[in-house]
Design brief:
By secondary structure, the protein is an alpha/beta fold. α5 (96-114) packs parallel to α7 (134-151). The chain contains 8 helices and 12 strands. A hairpin with a 5-residue loop joins β9 and β10 (194-203).
Length: 231
């Protein structure tokens, strides 16, 4: 049985039979406000608490914003950076050529030299926008996944979904190049409340629940109610 990498999200790890299979590439997809980045930060924090070294690559927020976001959940990223167990990397989407070069040429060596066992890229939707056509996006995304896999690290992408089709990523590619897909959605109820739901669409290498489960974003991050149903 393959070793599992716990996400640290109560309820989800139970749905996954212990976590994401080690060395897999998984993507958490959802629209704005569903907690994709919080999910990714929680995944990172779980690794840090287990004594792992981790890398968080952001195309959206800088190091200060990421640390402040994490601190709202009680996750002390600053001390982990100081102890050299966490690396926060900010890439600039506006500088497309340099960003692509850094990802392709520097990332594998950086993962191995740093000793990272978990890597997050937030968000792959922005990275894919740097490429000119679908064929190039698909090739580069597949190469990125394979490159990280070759280091043995477990990779987590975040991705935006299409507003008109919230079960598909914006470019429709990352779910096909990833070993696992976790879909986050929100539902507006008749009384005006919003219910968040999570579904493990696929996860190669492990048996998993496919049932849609409700979750919430609380003071300690995401919690999935794995025994409840979405109404």
């Amino acid at each position: 049985m393959r070793e599992k990498v716990a996400t640290g999200i109560t309820g989800l790890d139970e749905m996954l039979g212990g976590g994401i299979p080690k060395g897999n590439t998984a993507v958490v997809m959802g629209s704005f406000g569903t907690g994709k980045t919080t999910f990714a930060l929680q995944y990172i924090w779980e690794g840090l608490n287990n004594g792992e070294k981790v890398i968080f690559i952001s195309l959206e927020e800088d190091e200060t914003a990421i640390m402040e976001n994490a601190s709202t959940f009680g996750w002390d990223f600053k001390s982990k950076i100081e102890s050299e167990s966490l690396a926060l990397v900010k890439l600039e989407p506006a500088d497309a050529k340099n960003t692509i070069t850094r990802v392709k040429s520097e990332l594998p060596a950086f993962i191995e030299s740093f000793g990272a066992t978990r890597v997050v890229l937030d968000s792959v939707s922005l990275l894919n926008m740097l490429f000119h056509d679908e064929s190039e996006r698909r090739t580069q995304l597949f190469n990125l996944s394979q490159t990280v896999k070759s280091t043995g690290a477990t990779l987590l992408f975040t991705a935006e979904v299409k507003p008109e089709h919230p079960s598909s990523s914006r470019d429709g590619l990352v779910e096909y190049t990833s070993d696992g897909v976790i879909l986050l959605r929100y539902h507006e109820k008749e009384d005006g409340d919003v219910q968040l739901s999570m579904r493990v669409v696929k996860m190669r290498g492990t048996k998993h629940q496919r049932t849609v489960r409700p979750y919430e974003i609380g003071p300690q991050g995401l919690i999935v109610h794995a025994e409840s149903q979405v109404f």
